[in-house]
């Protein structure tokens, strides 16, 4: 059942208080009265009201002064000012001070009912707005950043402190460590969270395409520009722009970017009107920008403009403690999305995961878990559901010959050194296989 | 033990036939005996020269102090234009869960709105306002049901649109089948 709207009536005239009280009680509101502003403020210390109907002229503190003091109590009721003397000045003053409305006594019965009905609708909208904001916050929070390791906690602490500021941030870390998630976490915890977070993958776009993507273009600016298009900087107005793989942008784009970051203005491709946009920049790269600056491939001025705060995300191999947590998180995520019962992971499989190098970091672990759920028995993730040996991207550099030797040995073992079947599987003739066995000094294990 | 009564007090010389019909409908709606009484009420003390109306709050207090053995609800009928300090006019007023109420027929008359006089329409409206205010005395608040007599009415047209009966929800609240 909906909560009843509560009204506090503040008027020094008893007859007015009683009349309003009786009127609103008949309509089913929760009503209380106060004979002066002081009493009203003392009631407000302990109780919350949705609507306050206050007389403007009262002995001692008047209605306007009381309204100012209510605001300092950090309460947000709808305040309606009443007066027996209609004057435009007072009305304007009351509304300027943030009063919801202003009414002159006596009111037409219908006006009073409408006023309260509209105020109630405003209260309902406010409550709905707060609920929706909370929902958005909970959707955009940092729930995808899983981990209990000290190194990740440090990163999250940095995220928390940097989120409130407006400074540019560079997020560095190997591929798959979750740089975009960190950018999202910074944005969703910042005062800009109700404005968009616009992501641009700089590495995926050519120079001219990136220029048009970032700055937008006017109709006819180039072949195919059949309509005006807003750029990403323009879309990010009020919010955050996330430039992924910033190290890949060309020297020309570096100059353009520096100019935009300094002036926060730009011109669309093919346009001549200067456009202003208020955005925060977060960049990410898996390369060492400082050494690129030293080697002259990245502009030093741009580097310092972007590198106000640097957040380094540790690779997964440096936070092995987080692997079980992440594994369980991904199991839950994929079981839910595939509408399957929640499954477990056998200890041997978990141990195997903890021993892996994960050059693809969290992304690689996530893919492994997803694959294991798809091909597994639906009860638990077993060791054999995980990619072993050759399937795992190995970070060690092996020669082609070494790989060939290992592969031939694996096939021979699989077919119990049956040369014909092994040669058929390898799609070579028997003579070639004999030559390879000789070359790599392969022997059947007893 | 004899059931207590609702007293309908004509304070402004209302027609006995009209009152008899109201008494019957009121008793039927609330399942209580209704007694009609005349009362010689000097209303001039409650006149507000500035508003050229009569103060309903003060009149209500007087009605509340009237003593009728065996009665537990009293409703005074008036011909004059009633007001309360916050509103430009009222058709009637009663104390929620209280023992008294007042009703005026002044603004229920067609001729006030430039229409032809109609005794029937006036009686219907008066009956509805009396039942409405009596409902408040029994603790009923305004009802959202468009035809329920407890629906809030600010204009005579609103009164015309609703029925003179309580809806099933309001009846249930009073424990009336």
Task: Write structural notes for this entry.
- The complex is a heterodimer of chains A (446) and B (177).
- Chain A folds into 4 domains: 6-136, 3-Layer(aba) Sandwich (Rossmann fold); 153-312, 3-Layer(aba) Sandwich (Rossmann fold); 316-391, Helicase, Ruva Protein, domain 3; 400-439, Arc Repressor Mutant, subunit A, CATH 1.10.10.
- Helices cover 47% and strands 14% of the residues of chain A.
- Chain A is built from 18 helices and 16 strands.
- Chain A has helices spanning 14-26, 37-46, 63-72, 88-96, 109-139, 150-163, 179-188, 207-215, 232-235, 251-263, 289-295, 300-306, 322-337, 347-355, 361-375, 400-414, 419-426, 430-439, and strands at 6-10, 30-34, 51-55, 78-83, 101-104, 169-172, 197-201, 216-217, 229-230, 240-244, 265-267, 274-276, 280-285, 309-312, 344-345, 380-381.
- Chain A has a 5-stranded parallel beta sheet with strand order 2-1-3-4-5, sandwiched between helices.
- In chain A, helix 16 packs across helix 17 (419-426) and helix 17 (419-426) crosses helix 18 (430-439).
- Chain B contains 5 helices and 9 strands.
- In chain B, the strands form 2 sheets. A 5-stranded mixed beta sheet of chain B has the order 2-1-5-9-8, sandwiched between helices.
- The radius of gyration of chain B is 15 Å and the shape is globular.
- The two termini of chain B are 22 Å apart.
- The A-B interface holds A 13, 15-16, 18-20, 22-23, 25-28, 82, 105-110, 112-113 and B 51, 57, 83-90, 93, 95-96, 136, 141-142, 152, 154-155.
């Amino acid at each position: 059942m909906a909560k009843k709207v509560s009204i506090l009536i503040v008027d020094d005239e008893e007859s007015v208080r009683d009349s309003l009280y009786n009127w609103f009680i008949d309509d089913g509101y929760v009503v209380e009265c106060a004979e002066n502003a002081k009493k009203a403020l003392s009631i407000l210390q302990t109780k919350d009201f949705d609507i306050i109907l206050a007389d403007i002229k009262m002995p001692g503190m008047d209605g306007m002064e009381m309204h100012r003091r209510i605001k300092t109590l950090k309460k947000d009721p709808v305040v309606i000012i009443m007066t027996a003397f209609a004057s435009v000045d007072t009305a304007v003053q009351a509304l300027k001070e943030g009063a919801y409305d202003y009414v002159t006594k006596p009111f037409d019965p219908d006006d009073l009912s409408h006023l309260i009905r509209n105020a109630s609708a405003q209260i309902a909208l406010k409550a709905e707005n707060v609920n929706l904001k909370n929902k958005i916050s909970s959707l955009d929070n940092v729930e995808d950043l899983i981990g209990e390791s000290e190194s990740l906690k440090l990163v999250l602490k940095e995220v928390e402190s940097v989120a409130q500021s407006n400074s540019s941030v560079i997020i560095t870390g190997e591929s798959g460590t979750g740089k975009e998630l960190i950018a999202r976490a910074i944005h969703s915890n910042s005062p800009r969270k109700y404005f968009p977070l616009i992501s641009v993958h700089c590495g995926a776009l050519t120079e001219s395409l990136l220029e048009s993507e970032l700055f937008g273009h006017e109709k006819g600016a180039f072949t195919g520009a059949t309509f005006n298009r807003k750029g990403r900087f323009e879309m990010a107005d009020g919010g955050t722009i996330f430039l992924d793989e910033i190290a890949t942008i060309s020297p020309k784009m570096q100059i353009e970017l520096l100019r935009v970051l300094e002036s926060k203005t730009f011109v669309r491709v093919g346009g001549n009107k200067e456009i202003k946009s208020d955005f925060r920049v977060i960049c990410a790269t898996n390369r060492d920008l400082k050494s690129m600056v030293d080697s002259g491939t990245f502009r030093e001025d741009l580097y310092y403009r972007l590198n106000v705060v640097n957040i380094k995300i540790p690779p997964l191999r440096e936070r092995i403690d987080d692997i079980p947590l992440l594994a369980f998180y991904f199991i839950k995520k994929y079981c839910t999305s595939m509408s399957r019962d929640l499954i477990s992971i056998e200890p041997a499989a978990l141990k195997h995961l903890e021993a892996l190098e994960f050059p693809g970091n969290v992304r690689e672990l996530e893919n492994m878990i997803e694959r294991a759920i798809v091909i597994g028995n639906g009860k638990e993730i077993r060791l054999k559901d995980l990619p072993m040996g050759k399937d795992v991207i190995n970070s060690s550099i092996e020669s082609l010959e070494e790989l060939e030797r290992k592969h031939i040995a694996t096939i021979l073992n699989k077919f119990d050194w049956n040369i014909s079947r092994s040669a058929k599987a390898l799609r070579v003739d028997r003579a070639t296989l004999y030559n390879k066995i000789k070359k790599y000094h392969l022997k059947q294990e007893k | 033990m004899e059931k207590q009564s609702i007293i309908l007090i004509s304070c402004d010389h209302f027609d006995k036939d009209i009152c008899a019909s109201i008494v019957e409908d009121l008793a039927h709606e609330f399942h209580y005996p209704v007694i009609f009484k005349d009362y010689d009420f000097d209303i001039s003390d409650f006149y507000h020269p500035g508003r050229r109306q009569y103060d309903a709050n003060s009149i209500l207090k007087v009605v509340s102090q009237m003593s009728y053995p065996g009665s537990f609800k009293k409703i005074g009928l008036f011909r004059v234009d009633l007001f309360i300090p916050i509103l430009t006019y009222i058709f009637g007023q009663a104390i929620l869960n209280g023992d008294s109420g007042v009703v005026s027929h002044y603004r229920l008359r067609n001729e006030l709105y430039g229409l032809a006089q109609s005794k029937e329409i006036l009686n219907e409206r008066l009956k509805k306002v009396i039942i409405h205010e009596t409902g408040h005395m029994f603790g009923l608040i305004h009802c959202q049901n468009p035809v329920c007599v407890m629906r809030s009415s600010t204009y005579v047209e609103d009164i015309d649109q609703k029925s003179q009966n309580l809806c099933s929800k309001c009846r249930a609240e009073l424990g009336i089948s």
